[in-house]
């Protein structure tokens, strides 16, 4: 608005100056023309009168001649004529507001005196005054007109659009880049500026969007790598311990079985040995699971994937659902299987994939808070590989095809801070004796061994979804 005000004020000052200068020069010019006119009239009058006086002076003497001067009646009341001899001319004081013309009168070459014609200039003052008043009124009118015009033009052409530009610049500064573009219809510099601002805002928004996407991807990749690293460390540790435990456990099992089978020993001792044997069995199972998990952290052995036969994922899903039906029914949970029109058959070990699926479905059923539903979906997808997965797919396609089995529940969900830990061995939120915390780590190991990965999305109190990705085709030499 200040810009518009400046424009208006300067326009008004400009108009005023032009009108004032015009009035000043016009008045001066007209006054000069008036004086010139008067002088010319006086000269004509003086010449006629002078000639008459000189002639009469010559014929009839001084008195008769001066009589003519006294009798001369000029057309205007403002004009006065009198006779002056040389001395009275010298002594005469001139009044400011009178114009004097003195005509010398000579008779036979002898200077007799002067005819003085004087005329009042008061009408010039009147003229100047009226011109001033007229100019003042005209200036006021012009200023008023210019003011109104420039206010309208200034406000609508400069003030409003400038304020819009300022608002837009402020919004861009605040990062509000998705706001609607500036709508300024003017096709002048302000319109161009608005267009440029809109384009700039759009480009900034695009850049920001790309940057945000990149940052999110970077953070996700970092998190994946961190998790893979942690799991690899835990995997190595688990494999070491499991390996070391294997032999002593085997020895202990053989000995316990021997004691249990020895008829010569008392019944109580043989029962105790059987319990020891059962517990060793349990420990051995856990150790085997630990090894399964640990295996998934190395690269799959060369050719291992290529040698696998196509696995019927739909059949695996249906088998697992049927197997877990009784467990689900006890908790009022139904298990549904949804399949794609063409079920994928990736190269995989069917028993291992079934183990993965069973572990996921058991978790889903356990997560239910009341009656609910667990959905197993089998399909095929083109996806981008996560950062921590080594590609095992032919041709290095950027988005290769993967078979996907998803297990979705409506259960308690997983708190975001626990999400990075659920694949760690022995991580469980279940009570002692209810869960060992190996289910997911085993599933993870198996899936990684197949060249795939597991994706988790979960919302506390809404439910979770675990998706197992398995490559559809694999390179022969990995
Ligand atoms: N579908 C799910 N909904 C909610 N939490 C889950 C789900 N799946 C896994 N979790 C969480 O992840 C933890 C680890 O799961 P994992 O299967 O590895 O072990 P577990 O189920 O506790 O024990 P188990 O060895 O018997 O499977 C669980 O204790 C639970 O907190
Ligand atoms: Mg489990």
Question: Please, could you describe this protein's structure?
Answer:
It contains nine helices and eight strands. The model has no long low-confidence stretch (mean pLDDT 87). The chain is an alpha+beta fold and 478 residues long. Strands 4-5-6-8-7 form a five-stranded mixed sheet. A three-stranded antiparallel sheet has the order 1-3-2. It binds adenosine-5'-triphosphate and magnesium ion (MG). Residues 359, 362-363, 435, 439 line the site of magnesium ion.
Secondary structure: helix percent: 55-70%
Strand order of the largest sheet: 4-5-6-8-7
Runs with pLDDT <50, length 5+? none
Strand percent estimate: 5-15%
Q: Could you say which structural class the secondary elements and strand pairing correspond to?
A: alpha+beta
The first-to-last residue Cα distance is 72 Å
Briefly, what is this?
The chain has 478 residues and is an alpha+beta fold.
Task: List the keywords.
478 residues, 58% helix, Helix Hairpins, five-stranded mixed sheet, alpha+beta, binds magnesium ion, binds adenosine-5'-triphosphate, rod-shaped, Heat Shock Protein 90, Beta-Lactamase
Please specify the SSE layout and strand pairing.
Elements: H1 2-60, H2 62-71, E1 79-84, H3 86-91, E2 98-107, E3 110-120, H4 122-173, H5 189-261, H6 267-295, H7 313-330, E4 333-339, H8 350-367, E5 372-382, E6 401-408, H9 439-449, E7 453-459, E8 463-471
Parallel strand pairs: 4-5
Antiparallel strand pairs: 1-3, 2-3, 5-6, 6-8, 7-8
Helix pairs in contact: 1-2, 1-4, 4-5, 5-6, 6-9, 7-8, 8-9
The structure holds adenosine-5'-triphosphate and magnesium ion (MG).
Adenosine-5'-triphosphate (ATP) binds at residues 359, 363-364, 367, 409, 411-414, 422, 427-430, 435-441, 464.
């Amino acid at each position: 608005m200040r810009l518009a005000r400046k424009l208006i004020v300067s326009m008004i000052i400009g108009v005023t100056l032009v009108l004032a200068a015009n009035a000043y020069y016009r008045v001066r010019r007209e006054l000069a023309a008036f004086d010139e006119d008067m002088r010319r009239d006086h000269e004509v009058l003086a010449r006629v009168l002078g000639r008459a006086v000189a002639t009469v002076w010559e014929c009839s003497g001084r008195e008769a001649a001066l009589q003519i001067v006294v009798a001369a009646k000029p057309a205007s009341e403002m004009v006065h004529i009198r006779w002056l001899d040389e001395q009275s001319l010298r002594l005469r004081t001139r009044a400011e507001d009178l114009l004097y013309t003195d005509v010398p009168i000579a008779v036979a070459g002898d200077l007799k005196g002067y005819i003085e014609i004087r005329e009042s200039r008061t009408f010039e003052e009147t003229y100047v005054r009226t011109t001033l008043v007229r100019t003042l009124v005209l200036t006021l009118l012009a200023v008023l007109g210019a003011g109104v015009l420039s206010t309208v033009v200034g406000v609508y052409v400069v003030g409003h659009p400038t304020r819009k530009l300022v608002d837009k610049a402020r919004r861009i500064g605040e990062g509000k880049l998705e706001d609607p573009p500036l709508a300024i219809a003017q096709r002048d510099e302000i319109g161009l500026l608005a267009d440029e601002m809109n384009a700039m805002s759009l480009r900034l928004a695009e850049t920001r969007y790309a940057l945000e996407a990149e940052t999110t991807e970077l953070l996700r990749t970092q998190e994946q790598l961190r998790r893979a690293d942690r799991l690899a460390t835990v995997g190595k540790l688990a494999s070491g311990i499991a390996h070391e435990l294997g032999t002593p456990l085997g020895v202990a099992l053989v000995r316990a079985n021997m004691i249990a089978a020895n008829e010569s020993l008392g019944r109580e001792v043989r029962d105790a040995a059987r319990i020891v044997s059962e517990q060793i069995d349990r420990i051995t199972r856990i150790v085997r699971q630990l090894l399964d998990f640990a295996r998934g952290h190395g690269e799959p052995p060369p050719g291992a994937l290529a040698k696998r036969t196509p696995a019927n994922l739909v059949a695996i899903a249906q088998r697992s659902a049927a197997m877990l039906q009784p467990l689900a029914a006890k908790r009022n949970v139904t298990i549904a299987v949804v399949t794609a029109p063409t079920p994928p058959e990736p190269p995989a070990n069917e028993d291992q994939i079934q183990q993965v699926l069973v572990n996921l479905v058991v978790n889903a059923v356990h997560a239910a808070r009341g009656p609910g539903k667990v959905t197993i979906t089998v399909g095929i997808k083109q996806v981008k590989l996560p950062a921590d997965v080594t590609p095992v797919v032919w041709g290095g396609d950027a988005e290769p095809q993967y078979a996907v089995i998803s297990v979705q529940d409506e259960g308690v969900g997983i708190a975001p801070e626990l999400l990075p830990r659920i694949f760690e061995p022995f991580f469980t939120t279940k009570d002692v004796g209810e869960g060992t915390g190996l289910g997911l780590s085993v599933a993870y190991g198996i899936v990684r061994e197949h060249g795939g990965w597991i994706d988790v999305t979960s919302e506390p109190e809404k439910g979770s979804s675990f998706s197992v990705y398995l490559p559809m085709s694999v390179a022969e030499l990995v």
